[in-house]
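Subject: Re: docking follow-up (magnesium ion)

Dear J.,

Thanks for your patience while I sorted out the input files. As discussed at Tuesday's group meeting, I've set up the holo structure prediction with magnesium ion included as the bound ligand rather than trying to dock it afterwards. The sequence and the ligand SMILES I used are pasted below, so you can double-check that they match what you have on your end before we go further.
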Amino acid sequence: MLPCATARFATVDSRTITVVSAAIRAFNLNVQRGKNHILHDLTVEIPRGVVMGLLGPSGSGKTTFMRSIAGLQRIASGEIHVLDLPAASKPLRSKIGYSTQSASVYSDLTCIQNIRYFASLYLHNEKTPEEILEDVDLSRNADQMAESLSGGERARLALATTLVGSPDLLILDEPTVGLDPVLRVQLWKLFNKLAAQGKTLLVSSHVMDEADSCHQLILLRDGRVLAQGTPAELRLRSGKSRMDEVFISLIGAA
Amino acid sequence: MNMRRLIAMTKRVLLQLWHDPRTLALLFLSPALLMTILKYVYWTNPDLFQRVAGSMLGVFPMLVMFLITSVATLRERSSGTLERLMISPLGKAEFIAGYAIAFGLASLVQATAVSSYAIWVLGLKIAGLQITLIYAAILDALIGLAIGLAVSTFAKTEFQAIQFMPAILLPQLLLSGLLIPREAMPRILHDLSNFLPLSYAIDATRKVISNQGSILNDSLIIFLFLTLILSAGSLTLKRQTK
Ligand SMILES: Nc1ncnc2c1ncn2[C@@H]1O[C@H](COP(=O)(O)OP(=O)(O)O)[C@@H](O)[C@H]1O
Ligand SMILES: [Mg+2]
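The structure tokens for the complex came back this morning:
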């Protein structure tokens, strides 16, 4: 099964032939929404088991790219392969966790009821709902209605709903926006812990100072990839130390 | 269709209903209150109460389920939970059937409570069986559910969804035979009413109350409408956006 899948990728992107297949490969991806051309010939490869930061200003196409990977966005041309399968294919539905920019949970259910419900949609759950709440530090709020949660708690509940089933890939759209610094540090720790367990995380942010919590970064601007690499590599390339300066300098160089 | 997911879906919708006192009031208190008002409006003309109250037993479930379903599915769309479900293994048929079973159960309780109240407290006389009346009421409820589901795709807010009520439900109410028997309407309106599901719902309810004629035909036609509207509704549930 695996060698066959790898061989298929060799034809998708003839420049690289990888032994361990990547978690996500996008090749010449173009996406249009209405009359707007949002993503332009996007080609990226995201390895397995890393925390990949997707950074870019608001409106650069982060959400659109993530929705394309999750199979929620129709693409105009190009290819996306996710975990060796074409994006939007049915078997992927039990392998991807996706949390939208606004916390998508049921306000009129308690935390534990939310998790139990989403978990029951999957045939195989690697963790119990209680363990998942523990992971996001919401055990104390288990019986609290989601509607009465604070912003940070609600964001963590939304994150928890992506951990049900046994996802290999987590796509998290700006999960730390609007959270206090302490909570943000906690969440990035959790992301790294999940990556250490072998999961791949694609995490978007428009806050450049979150870059150092990621193993690798994709910098996006106007629907195009500005640069991809580790934070250290990007610093070296641009000669700047602060990430927002790195970004601006790379825009100048592009 | 996976049984486990279907049950989970049904259970979740019921839990949400249970947590929402306003919807529960809409389900049970408001029909009972309206029936009581009708009783006193027609105080001097009990025959008219018989006619109108009987038909209303078919109208309430449809009206209430239309409201609840359009608002509930719209909330799923705007809160992003529908999108969350669309990338999960949950099938569209399971999603729709889950709502249909949960709200069908709710309308079973509603029809039992409201018809019992009308019969035992308000003195409504029915010649047919109460259980057949309840069966007809559930069919009516499912029509409301199907229309609500279809309408929620064309609305962006809950307010817009409710604006569909006068556009879609009121004409049906006017032509359904609630005001005067359908046979007494001008030919063209009568023909038109043959294409509206609510007409058959009211016919069925009225037949049970007067115990005249079988409602088999009416229920078959209602099932046909249900299949049509629900499949149209499921076509509008898209996994991918453009
Ligand atoms: N439904 C839509 N129709 C047309 N353009 C859209 C639509 N949704 C988003 N866009 C545009 O697509 C671009 C990228 O949006 P998005 O992917 O949400 O960016 P980001 O998540 O980086 O803020 C923006 O310029 C936005 O205006
Ligand atoms: Mg976004």
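A couple of observations from a first look. Residues 3-236 of chain B form one domain. Chain B has one domain: 3-236.

Let me know if you'd like me to rerun anything.

Best regards,
T.
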